[in-house]
Amino acid sequence: MTRIAHCACGLSSISVKGEPRLHAVCHCTNCKRRTGSAFGVSAYFLRSDVIETRGEQSVYAFHHADNYDEERHFCSTCGTTLCWHSSVRPHLIGIAAGCFPDDSFGMPTISATSSKKLPWVELPSSCRLVER
Q1: Each residue of 55-71: pLDDT tens digit?
Q2: DSSP state of 67
Q3: Is residue 17 within 8 Å of 51, Cβ to Cβ?
Q4: Which of 28, 31, 84, 121 lies 20 to 30 Å from 66, alpha-carbon distance?
Q5: Which long-range contacts does 46-51 make (Cβ < 8 Å, 24+ apart)?
């Protein structure tokens, strides 16, 4: 199965094959700032599952306060963050789950950095709670 995630303006995309290795909601400050929301929802694929990227994308690379490196790839036109990868899991690429056109992943199975979850956010009991 091929899946394509698009940015808000539709000019940038990333295509991947297969199923995600992880499907998570994350409550860390980094994800909150990346999304401008209460959490981020991500689908993680093997980097080798990437088929192609299209459109002009910019990269924001930084050294995280938790002592790892991260690169975020975002559409140069609309600014939507499409994907990222970090030195913590170099074999994986995170893709913003909301950039895929449907809800084919179902509910996230992991709730990461749950200690930073806002008190009004409620998740299904089936989510496995993990700290980074």
Answers
A1: 999 999 999 877 889 99
A2: T
A3: yes
A4: 121
A5: 46/18, 46/21, 46/91, 46/92, 46/93, 47/85, 47/90, 47/91, 47/92, 47/93, 48/91, 49/16, 49/17, 49/18, 49/93, 50/14, 50/15, 50/16, 50/93, 51/2, 51/15, 51/16, 51/17
Q: Write out the E strands in 10-107.
A: 13-17, 22-26, 40-46, 50-54, 57-64, 68-75, 81-86, 92-96
- Residue 31 scores a pLDDT above 90: no
Q: Which helix (H) or strand (E) holds 33?
A: helix 29-35
pTM equals 0.89
Structural element, H or E, at residue 29: helix 29-35
